[in-house]
Amino acid sequence: MVRPHLPLNALRAFEASARHLSFTRAAIELGVTQAAVSHQVKILEDRLKVSLFKRISRGLMVTAEGEALLPVLRDSFDRMADMLERFEGGYVREVLTVGVIGTFAVGWLLPRLADFQLHHPQIELRLSTNNNRVDIAAEGLDYAIRFGSGAWHNIEAEHLFEAPLSAICIPEMAKELKRPEDLFRKILLRSYRADEWTGWFAAAGVTGEPPIARGIMFDSSLAMIEAAMQGAGVALAPPLMFQRQLTTGSLQQPFDVFVSRGSYWLTSQKSRSETPPMAAFRTWLLEAANAVAMEPHGHQGAEVNLT
User: Fold this and answer.
1) Residues 158, 265: contact at Cβ < 8 Å?
2) Opening angle at CA 145, ends 301 and 223, nearest 5
């Protein structure tokens, strides 16, 4: 099928005139004369055999035919502008959109992204953070990094690494914790998973009935750790994701006791064909995750797996 020649100058003149409702202001934007804009619009009207504007005393009014054409043009021009902006340094920057749990993004991924960007400058990475509730298809994601068992319907999941949970609190509170039973006198911050503290006390070898966690319930370890830093209680969170705070001493891990509740996974739709940017990110991420798995678990003592 031979497509007719598109009068791009006329289309641009119409779009600018419709946006400003003025040939004069459109001409200023386009850097041409008012007569040139009016002439280009007339060419388009003759081509389409419709009137796109009604001339009124205060300027222009877009006709029904013009209103039908306008959103298509705006979308097309925006998409062309977006594509042209992606050309840089002799190559086109390719977009990769990844959904990431906020805790993983801040605690592990962001400190390592400079390396990815160094090796793949042509990929424009767009991160969308969440609290582990994500719909890859609906949100238009290429990948999603999530936490759990790895079993999601119609989802391809590749294991990254475990991030076991441990008790974390401010130094002043840690000084008062000599043995796990001392936590009975503290406020225990918790997630929506009711069995995490129970599992931790079991891993610590605490006999008898552990206390009921009555602290604030959080849907994000980031928020829980922030509460712990303000002295609101003891958090049960993955130390691996909060190495900066533990290294600087603003937080401490009083016991070498861990409980495993799942792993981080790189996930995508099974029906999704892998693009070159996806392949590059996947390879880089798995190599970085494998390096974590090879590191010695310096603080990891007793552990119980609840999955």
Assistant:
1) yes
2) 65
Is residue 265 classed as helix, strand or coil in its secondary structure? strand
96: enclosing H helix or E strand:
strand 94-101
**Is the torsion defined by CA of 63, 65, 68, 69 positive or negative?**
negative
User: 220: burial class by Cβ within 10 Å (0-12, 13-18, 19+)?
Assistant: middle
The closest of 278, 241, 269, 262 to 157, measured between CA atoms, is 269
Do 257 and 166 form a contact (C-beta atoms < 8 A)?
yes
Residues 123-150 pLDDT 10s: 999 999 998 889 999 999 999 999 999 9
What pLDDT shows up at residue 298?
38
**Beta partners for 236?**
167
Q: Is 182 exposed, middle or buried (0-12, 13-18, 19+ CB in 10 A)?
A: middle
Query: Taking the CB of residue 67, how many other CB atoms lie within 10 A of it?
Result: 11
Which is nearest to 203 in space by CA: 231, 183, 189, 229?
Answer: 183
Q: What is the mean pLDDT of residues 220-241?
A: 95
- Highest mean pLDDT range out of 58-62, 77-81, 280-284? 280-284
Cα torsion 253, 289, 269, 83 to 10°: value is 110
Count CB atoms within 10 A of the CB of residue 190.
21
Rounded-to-integer distance, Cα 131 and Cα 255, Å: 27
Contact at 8 Å (CB) between 99 and 187?
no
DSSP 157-218: EEEEEE--BEEEB-HHHHTT-SSGGGGGGS-B-EES-TTHHHHHHHHTT--SPPPPP-S-EE
Both structure tokens of 36: 């040139």
**Banded pLDDT at 246 (limits 50, 70, 90):** very high
pLDDT of 95 over the 60 cut: yes
